[in-house]
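Need a sequence for this fold. Nothing fancy.
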């Protein structure tokens, strides 16, 4: 089921309203299990949709999968131009929906966003899973400029087995895709925040960090940096997986999530 939710301005971000388009997944026999907020990365909501349905069915719970404003042609208010601002908007969404006990699960850019949501201290959020999250600055392990990579290069960086990467849509012109431009509007060209790891040292939430062993966008040094920053966090490395475990090894990722 897809819904559109309008929010007034929230927190300190300088914009007038946010419109969220979200897919909601529930099992045929949902129970009172905790709800999940799934946050996609730069590849768009399609990279999380299959896993959202799998999670809803196995966890017998409610799974909300929004499209970040600006992705897939959705509107993005001009003043909404930072990861922290988007995190505040998502905290407002949880308030509007009156959700409690929420586990926030994010991949890539969505992982960074999940960390920022956790740092806001919303009482509605009770746990985080960061999956191959960008956002950290790790000396000697730079993040490649994804806007300059060819589809073949991106597959080689993102997949354990690049032959399994989906065929990209036909090019619509020169330059980065609209979704990459939407991503960079939030992250800036570096796709990282040098203050993030230090800020995470004060995070007081259960955090599970899950990483594909073959990720060459943010390698496992980033996983260990996140784990070192968050006291008491769990770290799981998934063999045979790259930057997108929810696509490449969904069963292993689901097992890691549900065994918490």
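Here you go.
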């Amino acid at each position: 089921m897809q819904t559109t939710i309008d929010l007034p301005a929230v927190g300190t971000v300088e914009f007038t309203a946010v419109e969220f388009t979200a897919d909601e997944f529930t099992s045929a026999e949902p129970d009172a299990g905790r709800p999940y907020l799934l946050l996609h990365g730069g590849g768009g909501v399609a990279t999380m949709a299959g896993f959202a349905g799998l999670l809803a069915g196995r966890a017998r719970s409610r799974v909300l999968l929004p499209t970040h404003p600006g992705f897939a042609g959705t509107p993005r208010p001009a003043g909404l131009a930072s990861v922290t601002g988007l995190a505040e908007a998502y905290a407002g969404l949880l308030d509007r929906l009156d959700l409690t006990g929420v586990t926030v699960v994010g991949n890539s850019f969505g992982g960074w966003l999940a960390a920022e949501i956790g740092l806001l201290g919303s009482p509605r959020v009770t746990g985080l899973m960061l999956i191959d999250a960008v956002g950290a600055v790790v000396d000697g392990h730079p993040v490649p400029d994804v806007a300059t990579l060819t589809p073949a290069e991106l597959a080689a960086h993102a997949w354990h087995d690049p032959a399994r990467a989906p065929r990209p849509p036909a090019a619509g012109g020169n330059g980065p895709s609209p979704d990459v431009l939407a991503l960079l509007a939030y992250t800036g060209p570096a796709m990282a925040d040098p203050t993030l790891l230090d800020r995470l040292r004060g995070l007081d939430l259960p955090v599970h960090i899950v990483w594909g062993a073959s990720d060459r966008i943010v390698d496992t040094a980033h996983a260990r940096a996140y784990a070192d920053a968050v006291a008491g966090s769990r770290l799981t490395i998934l063999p045979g997986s790259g930057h997108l475990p929810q696509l490449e090894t969904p069963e292993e990722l689901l097992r890691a999530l549900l065994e918490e």
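For context: DSSP finds nine helices and eight strands in the chain.
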